[in-house]
Amino acid sequence: MTTIKVKFRPSTVIDREGTIYFQIIHKRKVRQLLTQYHISPNEWDDNRSMLKTNLKNDRSLFVESIRKRLQWDIERLTKIVHKLE
Fold it and tell me: Is the entire prediction scored with pTM above 0.85?
C-alpha cells in the first residue's frame, strides 16, 4: 500500500517562504518529492494539511491556483501508483 501526503516545510530563514512537498510512503520507505510551490506559513493549514482557502489578501488568487495544481498533482500521483500496483 502506498500513501501520498502533502506536507509543508517552513523556511529556516525568518520572513522567507517555505516549500510544499509530497511525502510518499511505500513498503515502509519514506520518500519526499519536492515541488516548486512556495508559500508563507500563514497560508498553510496544519490541521488539514492543505492551503487555506479563506484568505482575503492580494495573494488569494495565487494560493488558490497552487491549491488546484496540488489537487491535480495528487490525482496524477495516485493514478501512477495504481498503474504500478
Answer: yes
d(CA 8, CA 79): 23
- Whether the CB-CB separation of 6 and 30 falls below 8 Å is answered with no
Amino acid (one-letter) located at 8: F
The predicted-structure confidence for 13-24, as pLDDT tens digits, reads as follows 988 999 999 999
Taking the alpha carbons at both ends of the chain, their separation in whole angstroms is 9
Task: Tell me which residue of 41, 19, 34, 26 sits closest to 85, measured CA to CA.
Answer: 26
Tell me, what amino acid is at 23? Q
pLDDT single digits (tens) 14-62: 889 999 999 999 999 999 999 999 999 888 988 888 888 777 778 888 8
Q: How far apart are CA 77 and CA 81, in angstroms?
A: 6
H/E stretch holding 61 reads helix 60-84
